[in-house]
Amino acid sequence: MKEAFKALADPTRRKILDLLKGKDLTAGEIADQFDMSKPSISQHLKILKAADLIEAEKQGQYISYHLNTTVFQELISWAMSFTKGDDTNA
User: Where would I find the beta strands (DSSP E) of the chain?
Assistant: First the structure.
């Protein structure tokens, strides 16, 4: 979970995740949305993939990226655990 929070701390990576909410995209399609080099985007994708926030799938000569919703469900479940329980200490 530490890697996921580290990955989410960067605004560029959060924007990449927002882009992937709509549909699967290739690295080139993602890079077209930013004013930075393709190697920089590749580094962001590598970090997101290492944190298991995205997954990559080879499609012909391209690699398509999509969200790994399982990790997001785990993060949400963990965060929601703070809203449950005994309110007597409030």
Answer: 25-26, 54-59, 62-67
